Automatic annotation (TrEMBL):
Gene3D superfamilies: Ribonuclease Inhibitor. One of its GO terms (cellular component) is cytoplasm. The lineage of its organism: Eukaryota, Metazoa, Chordata, Craniata, Vertebrata. InterPro entries: LRR_dom_sf, LRRC14/PRAME. This is Leucine-rich repeat-containing protein 14B. The gene is Lrrc14b.
Amino acid sequence: RATMKSLRFISAEAFVSNAEFARKSLSSIAHNLFPLLFKASYLLEQGEVIHDLVENWPLVDFNMGKLLGTTADCQEDLSHRTCAVCLESCLTGLRDYVLNHPSPYMKRLKVVDLTGIKDVEVQFCECKKTMGRWARTQLLSKLCLELLVYLQQTQCNPGTFEISIDVLIDLFVTERNYELVVQALLKKCYCPLKICCVSFRSDNLALQKFFYIIKLTDPSLLRKLEIVHNVRLEMEHLEILFNSIHFPLLMSLTLPARTFNVRRFTATDEQMLANIGEKLGEMTQLTELSIPFSVLTGRIQGLLSPLKTPLKKLDVSNCLLNHDDMAYLANSFHVNHLEALDLSGHDIPDLYPSTFFKLLSHSSSVLRSLTLEDCNIQDTHVNMLILGLSPCQKLQEFKFLGNPLSSHALKQLFTFLCELPMLKNVEFPVPIDCYPIGITYPIDDASLCRFDHQKYESVAEELKFILLQANREDVKASTPLFGSYDAAVQETNNELGAYLIKSFKEAVEKFTTSLNKTS
């Protein structure tokens, strides 16, 4: 893929392409050329050169996002390349920066920022091997512990112990890497490389372990907290978490499914929900909130009204919201700031069409991403949907999988979507006429793939032709049957699958035991 490169960058590529020569020559290279050489080495996947550049880094900071992003010398953004060769070379180079430099007193590096790396579905690196967030967490923790062992066992220059480098990282912890990360965090004060957790994601982890490790991360610095799959956090645990730990800088919070369930609410639970709302209100930086698959009927106002900062992102998918909830959202001070909204799993056309369109109208000046999956949007609702989306001229992403729409309705909708100037990504459902007659929605996983694939491909081609005719080749249209790509789930799906099988077996065993007791 051709991208704009300066003569300087082309020269840098030529220089690093001969790895042996480049490594020998680093000592005579001007300090201000290191960032240029780093990006050129990353583009060409020259692992050994990357290692040596980082090992001898002469500047005060090392920011991966800035180094790999669009620069004057090379417009191509490489921050989405999680190339295993490059990233491993980078991290081992950082370890060796502490150990191997002949003159520790000349070292200026104070901050390493790894948070600008973006995990995406399609990788363009030659090696095709990625190092995701979980693996980066694992490797950095391992290197920190190895460094400590080496420093304890070896006679090092006293100046080595004076090195202190903050390494900003998005940690991703599961049962499998928990012990390693805990050890690295516990010994952080003794290690020259200081793990600074900016964002924390936890999947497949016992609640007790989550509570222990979150305290080790220094929550006062945390900007993003994601508690996602197989962490059994319920409302009472969330209240304990907020009462015992303060998150003054938290900007983004994702809670696991079934955190809230108002169906079994008591007066105590009502008070608990109010307390949680107050604690959210104290997080003055909070602008993103995801609480999918909870039962929050009639309680959205109680949860969100204490917030002092308007939300930019809200995910209340499958939360069984009623008309009062939707009316609150449509009239709240959040609505004029919402850039991303997920209302999946709600029967919008039947339950609250006018309130929903009022919400769309109020957020239209800023709304960039809208997700309406499994919302029972049918052919008869398409004109109404087009009317509601028309003011949303800044919309970049529209996802509406799982809705019973025909091929004809999809073509009508796509003709309109071509008119949204900022649109970049559309996720559309398999047309209902591609499924056997009598299919019911929402479609269960077993029936999801039982459609006429040949007919679907034909319809998909027609939809793409509509985009082509309107000169909108820039719009990506797809049907990810099992939902959008999640890099974290993709990376840990084996562990996640094993955990689900284990949980299923335990449930069957408990059921069998209870049957035996009653017989």
